[in-house]
Design goal:
142 residues; eight-stranded antiparallel beta barrel; 10 strands
């Protein structure tokens, strides 16, 4: 049952925490994006720098291109994790078929997804921390 996590979540922050505690914002501090979880167990996610086509970019470290992928998900509230089973990705052959496991913490209207430790730009022990805010449902029953 997915009812707690279902809906649309707006990106508030996408940061990388390095093993030394330093933070990096690969899409800039003003990144934009959404993640959608449906009642049928599907999800889609998009992240990008806010000012992708402007020069110079709003943050010097905002050098990443947009990220977009989709598939099915499994949410386990008792163990605080979500698994994204990637079916398609903006970067073909890189994410497709992978299970992306994220620690999922919900507090009020907030959702924080945290990756396991990973390699990032030749550095080990790096964690992605992605924060969202729940959006009001736009569709109402007629």
């Amino acid at each position: 049952m997915h009812t707690i996590i279902e809906g649309t979540w707006k990106l508030k922050s996408f940061q990388i925490e390095k093993s030394n505690g330093e933070l990096e914002f690969p899409f800039g501090k003003d990144a934009i994006g959404y993640i959608h979880y449906t009642p049928t167990g599907h999800f889609s996610v998009q992240y990008m720098p806010n000012k992708l086509n402007e020069e110079p970019c709003s943050e010097p470290e905002a050098t990443f291109m947009p990220v977009s992928y989709f598939g099915t998900f499994e949410y386990n509230r008792e163990k605080d994790y979500v698994v994204h089973r990637v079916e398609g990705s903006f970067f073909p052959n890189s994410d497709e078929g992978l299970d992306k496991i994220r620690h999922a913490r919900m507090r009020g209207k907030g959702l924080t997804l945290k990756s396991p430790e990973m390699n990032w730009r030749n550095e080990t022990g790096v964690v992605a921390i992605i924060q969202f805010e729940k959006q009001a449902d736009l569709l109402k029953e007629f």
